[in-house]
């Protein structure tokens, strides 16, 4: 299979350093890469670890069904994950985030995981959201929507008022940002090899994700419908939540948002 850039994308059966690579499908303008990938999976044409990358999206979505900035030049992809530990429970989103942060780190990008599923780039010492991961499971099919701002990022005025931080693009931190298809091929290869190389990924994902957890050991605020709790971010829980130290004790929190006080 050949993308518009002329780069041959791997098909199942290709090997790189002894690793059997999953299939990557390409598409032009779509409503949502997640929707197209789900249709392919339901038709039996998208196996576990196969993925689809689209040139652009008219109805890309993020957390809580928020609109996702999806112009050409950025990365808009959907990856089918195995519905097995740690992706079969509440830790799935954070575990997937850890995989992709690790993959971007391997490629030299100074990216951190902002709990639970945001990809944050540090540029000149300032954190900026550069991507995100959205997991959707239905009828035994688990898909991870992955978006990365490569060529451009939304302006501050286009973000919601309660956004935790401004957005950024890889182009703003590099003289020659990668093409979306090339970057996705590398990310899938790294993520798949990290998952496949460890026979106990379900037991070690937390340590891996914690290595690049944004604001670890800093004072943070956790907010949900019950209110806000402030404390030191001690790390992650195996449930996929965060552990905060406050009032001389350590508590586990999930289902809310994390931000600086």
Tell me what the structure shows.
The chain folds into 2 domains: 15-211, BirA Bifunctional Protein, domain 2; 219-259, SH3 type barrels. The protein starts with 14 loop residues before the first strand and ends with a strand. The protein is of the alpha+beta class. The protein has helices spanning 33-42, 92-106, 180-197, 201-211; strands at 15-16, 19-20, 24-30, 51-57, 75-81, 111-114, 118-123, 126-138, 141-148, 219-224, 227-236, 242-246, 249-253, 257-259. The strands form 3 sheets. A 7-stranded mixed sheet has the order 3-4-5-9-8-7-6, with helices on both faces. Strands 13-12-11-10-14 form a 5-stranded antiparallel sheet. The protein has a two-stranded antiparallel ribbon with strand order 1-2. The chain is globular, with a radius of gyration of 18 Å. Strand 11 (227-236) and strand 12 (242-246) form a beta hairpin. The longest helix has 18 residues, at 180-197. It is 21% helix and 33% strand.
Which homologous superfamily in CATH is the superfamily of the largest domain?
Bira Bifunctional Protein, Domain 2
CATH class of the largest domain: Alpha Beta
Distance between the termini: 48 Å
Strand line-up in the sheet with most strands:
3-4-5-9-8-7-6
Give me the secondary-structure category: alpha+beta
Using only C-alpha atoms, the radius of gyration works out to 18 Å
Oligomeric category: single chain
């Amino acid at each position: 299979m050949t993308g518009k850039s002329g780069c041959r994308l791997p098909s199942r059966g290709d090997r790189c350093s002894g690793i059997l690579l999953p299939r990557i499908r390409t598409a032009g303008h779509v409503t949502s890469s997640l929707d197209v990938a789900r249709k392919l999976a339901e038709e039996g044409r998208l196996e576990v670890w196969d993925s689809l990358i689209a040139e652009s999206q008219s109805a890309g979505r993020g957390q809580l069904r928020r609109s996702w900035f999806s112009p050409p030049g950025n990365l808009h992809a959907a990856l089918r994950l195995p519905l097995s530990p740690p992706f079969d429970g509440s830790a799935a989103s954070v575990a997937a985030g850890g995989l992709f942060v690790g993959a971007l780190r391997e490629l030299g990008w100074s990216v951190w995981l902002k709990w639970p599923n945001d990809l944050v780039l540090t540029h000149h010492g300032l954190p900026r959201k550069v991507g995100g991961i959205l997991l959707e499971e239905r009828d035994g099919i688990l898909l991870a929507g992955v978006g990365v701002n490569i060529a451009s990022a939304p302006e501050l005025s286009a973000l919601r008022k309660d956004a935790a931080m401004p957005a950024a693009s890889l182009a703003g931190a590099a003289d020659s940002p990668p093409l979306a298809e090339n970057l996705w091929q590398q990310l899938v290869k790294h993520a798949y090899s990290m998952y496949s190389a460890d026979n106990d990924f379900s037991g070690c994902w937390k340590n891996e994700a914690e290595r690049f957890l944004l604001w670890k050991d800093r004072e943070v605020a956790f907010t949900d419908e019950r209110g806000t709790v402030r404390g030191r971010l001690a790390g992650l829980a195996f449930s996929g939540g965060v552990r905060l130290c406050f009032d001389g004790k350590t508590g586990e929190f999930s289902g809310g948002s994390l931000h600086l006080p």
